Amino acid sequence: MRPSECVGCTAFPCDDVDHRGYAVPGVDVPAEDVRIVLVSEASPPDPADGYYADGAPLFARTTLEAFGDAGQRVSTIRELLDLGVYLTTAVKCAKTGYAIRPATVDACAEILERELALFPDVRAYLAMGDVAIRALNTVARRAGEPRPVPAGSTYRIRGGTYTFRGARVFPSYLQAGPSFYIEKTKRRAIADDIARALELAR
Q: N or C, where is the chain less crowded by C-beta within 10 Å?
C-alpha cells in the first residue's frame, strides 16, 4: 500500500506554504505491520531532503540518528519501515517561514486523518513538535474525541500518559532537519520518547 495513492490534497487552499514541496509518502508499506507512526512538522523545502527520497536526505539522516540515540541501530529508512515505523508530516507542503499558521495545520489535518486511518494496528504515535501535536489534536477534535495531548510547553507535558484511539501518544521535539543538532537536551528527550515508543511496538 502506498499512502500517496490513498490520500492527498487537490485544492491547496493554504497560502503560507510552498506547494511545490507537497508530498504524501509514496513508499510501499504493509499497513498492517505499522506499529509506530512518527509525525513531524512539514515537508522539506527541497523534496530531495524528504524521508523517502533517494540517497541520504536530511530528514532521513537526522531521524536515523535519533533512533540510534534511542538504542535502535538502523542505517536506512527501509530498516525503520521493516521495524513497523512509518514516517510522515503533519503539513504536506513546505514551510516558507519559521512558523506555520494554525489554520494551515488544521486544513492539512484532514489529510493526516485519512492517512492515519490507513494503519489499524498502531500502538504509538510520536508527535514531533508543536505542529504535529496540534495536528493530532485537530484530528481528534473533528471526530468529537478528547484532545490526546494537553495544552502546554513540550518540556512540561512530556512524560505524561496520553492516548489516541487506543494508542499511546508521545509529544516530543522536532527531529527532522537541522534543528535536531541545536540543543543536546532536546536530543536526549527525543531519544527517550522514541525508546518508550519502541518498547510498546515490540
A: C
User: What is the DSSP-derived secondary structure letter of residue 53?
Assistant: -
C-alpha cell read off for 109:
489535518
Answer yes or no: is pLDDT of 181 > 90: no
The pLDDT tens digits for 124-147 are: 999 999 999 999 999 999 999 999
pLDDT at 180: 84
Q: Check if the beta carbon of residue 41 is closer than 8 Å to that of residue 91.
A: yes
CATH number of the domain at 67, please. 3.40.470.10
Alpha helices (H) in the chain, listed in sequence order:
58-69, 77-82, 102-116, 130-142, 154-157, 184-201
Residues in the chain: 202
- Regarding pTM above 0.90, the answer is yes
Residue 110: all three cell numbers together = 484532514
State residue 29 phi and psi, 5-degree precision.
Answer: -140, 130
Amino acid in position 66: A
What is the residue range of 48's domain?
3-7+16-201
Backbone angles phi, psi at 36, to 5 degrees: -130, 130
Amino acid at 47: P
Rounded CA gap, 60 and 51, in Å? Answer: 5
The three cell numbers of residue 68 are 540510534
